[in-house]
Structure formats: C-alpha cells, structure tokens
Design a protein that fits this description.
This is Thioredoxin. About 35% of the residues lie in helices and about 25% in strands. The protein is of the alpha/beta class.
Length: about 110
C-alpha cells in the first residue's frame, strides 16, 4: 500500500480510528472502484502535507463489511472524518485535492 496512508480493518478500526488522539480521515474504497483509485494519489499528498495534523487511513469495503455498514456507507469513495472518537464530517465522491484539504482544515 501507499507510504503516507495506512490500511485499517474492521478489527483495527476501534484502536486506529476511534482511540486516536489525532483526527483521522477514513477513506472507504474498493479495488474495482475507478473514482477510488483516482482519489488515492490526492490522499497520499494530503497525508504527507498534513502529517502530524491528521491521519489518513484506507478501508477496503469488500474485505471489511462491518464498519462501512455501521456508518451507513452506501457509495464509494466515501470519506469520514473522526475526531476524539466521534464522526465530525463526511465527503462522498472524488473531490479535488483543495476541497479535501479545506474540509480537513475546517473540521479537524
């Protein structure tokens, strides 16, 4: 996987996301999803640029069905932002890098 974003699974979600002291953006994606693949390089850049301010993790919805269902993920790509164990924002779709960065700065 990429160097600036990390994978997260149903098993590690509680520890990696909900218990994180840093805001966490969770990218819900799948291998077969073209817009998800187009979004990935942008998230890599943002993760590098905002290191220490926000953590970006990726959850494959095909391999981890429990967590997306728990948060009502119906379409991908979907990005949920968590801060102090609570969901504080959501973006659905492949957005321009600037929009994602602004979203993070506003909510994180």
């Amino acid at each position: 996987m990429a160097q600036n974003t990390q994978p997260v699974t149903d098993a590690t979600f509680q520890n990696d996301v909900m218990n994180s002291s840093t805001p966490v953006l969770v990218d819900f994606w799948a291998e077969w999803c073209g817009p998800c693949r187009a979004l990935a390089p942008k998230l890599e850049e943002i993760a590098s640029e905002m290191a220490g301010q926000v953590k970006i993790v990726k959850m494959n919805v095909d391999e981890n069905p429990q967590t997306p269902g728990q948060f009502g993920i119906r379409g991908i790509p979907a990005m949920l932002l968590f801060k102090d164990g609570k969901q504080v924002g959501e973006l659905v779709g492949n957005h321009p890098k600037e929009n994602i960065t602004q979203f993070l700065k506003t909510h994180a």
